[in-house]
Amino acid sequence: MKHLKAYLAFTAALALLSTVVPANAEPLKNIVLVHGAWVDASGWKSVYEILTKEGFRVSMLQEPETSFADDVTAAKRLLDLQDGPTLLVGHSYGGSIITEAGVHPNVVGLVYVAAHAPDVGEDESALGKKTPSVLGKTEGAIKVTPDKFTYLDPVQFPKLFAPDLPREQAEFESRSQVLAATQVFSTPLTAAAWKTKPSWGIVAGNDQIINPDLERWYYERAKSQTTVIPGASHSVYESHPKEVAAVITRAARNIVPPATR
């Protein structure tokens, strides 16, 4: 009788497992990395190398930063090129991009890396003013060109954006910025993918660009699985690539893509 009960419990567990994980489901392979404002995709290099060694097919978006609509369109264009289920990862302003573009049918999960995650009708500029960062309190740190493109003061870039990177690297990045149109930060979102898709969030504990409390609030609202990296700057994806890649890998391996038909 005892053996029969054990057998029945075992078969019931197998039946439950078969309803949760489709027998013909394949592990998720595609990952798209989206950078934030003022930088470019080259900053993902160390994370990219770790993820590719883990067997993932990794693509990196180079958004133009000319308008929020242009950046979302660029993200969707790259997502169209993916050959199946994809994990979408965004850093900083890239979080707004993946929130809007993440409704794409290829996207099955989101990872926010020290990122914004607004809701429909919200924009990151207004939300940032409600929970100001060190950047927001530093007068003159954000410069604006006559044609309304922004950049971070190169002198202040190392201490605000990348204080935990080697000084030479931070200074190089300060002189290779991608200028971002002012409107990219204040355009309200029309979609919020985190409402319908699983998400993960990384809080950079010493972030000077986005207040870590705002990051926590975003992730709590989205019901994201959250990881805090103490002492990390806004450049957490560069200064702590192993920890960031570990979160991305965990997310990718915990998502069960739709069964192959």
From TrEMBL:
Gene Ontology molecular-function annotations: hydrolase activity
Record-annotated AB hydrolase-1 domain positions: 31-247
SUPFAM superfamilies associated with the record: alpha/beta-Hydrolases
Key words, A-Z: Hydrolase, Signal
Keyword Disulfide bond appears in the UniProt entry: no
Signal among keywords: yes
One Pfam family it belongs to: Abhydrolase_6
Leader sequence segment: 1-25
InterPro entries per the UniProt record, alphabetical: AB_hydrolase_1, AB_hydrolase_fold, Sec-Metab_Biosynth_Hydrolase
Record protein name field: Hydrolase
